[in-house]
């Protein structure tokens, strides 16, 4: 069974640019969440999508946005990139986000801002 | 405010030296507590789900336990391949799927 797939694995951008990251969840999983991981802050929740609707949102500025398609694939967009956006961006999927249901993670996209 | 705290931040063990990692949490409406293992350059790998005080789960040299305020990950006779960062997360809130993560314990097992 294929796991969560994230593309690209590595990305280098400059300040002010925008970027789109992609996530394909495990087959049959309809809940997709995005996290930002940095050495100092750990994993910080960005948002969760379920059935093409944003169901939960963390405390990130509006420059961070996402969407989910009918096949449950998800994209995350960051506009007007800042140096502080350098991080590992992780996508996680679960069947529907019910109680006790674990999230399964991809290996992330490493975003570096120059 | 929902919060998850892990200790210690880093732990070095000799091969075969057993120890425990701690995860304490304050959340409103715990819906599940999860342990993950993360290797460098990889995403977190799911290990255990716990949701009821008193519950225990085991897998090879790892055993996870849960109380009303904290969870422990016990590592018995660790091997070098157990070296990784161990993350604790809680699922909270009334709807949806929002996980709160601790900052992890970096475990190094020395041969």
List keywords for this structure.
heterodimer, A: about 110 residues, mainly beta, seven-stranded mixed beta sheet, four-stranded antiparallel beta sheet, 11 strands, about 0% helix, B: about 110 residues, six-stranded mixed beta sheet
The low-confidence parts of chain B are none
Q: Report the sheet with the most strands of chain A, covering strand number, pairing sense and barrel closure.
A: 7 strands, mixed
Could you tell me how far the N terminus lies from the C terminus of chain B, measured between alpha carbons in angstroms? Answer: 41 Å
**Helix count from the secondary structure assignment of chain A:** 0
Q: Distance N terminus to C terminus of chain A?
A: 37 Å
Radius of gyration of chain B: 14 Å
Structural class of the helices, strands and pairings of chain A? Answer: mainly beta
Percent of residues in helices of chain B comes to under 10%
Largest sheet of chain B: 6 strands, mixed
- Averaging pLDDT over every residue of chain A, what do you get? 95
Number of strands of chain A: 11
- Report the β-strand fraction of chain B as a percent range: over 45%
Task: Tell me the series of helices and strands of chain A, N- to C-terminal.
Answer: EEEEEEEEEEE
Number of strands of chain B: 11
* Shape, per Cα inertia axes of chain B: globular
Report the largest inter-chain contact.
A-B, 28 and 26 residues
Helix and strand content put the structural class of chain B at mainly beta
Helix and strand pattern of chain B: EEEEEEEEEEE
What quaternary form is this? heterodimer
User: In percent, how helical is the residue content of chain A?
Assistant: under 10%
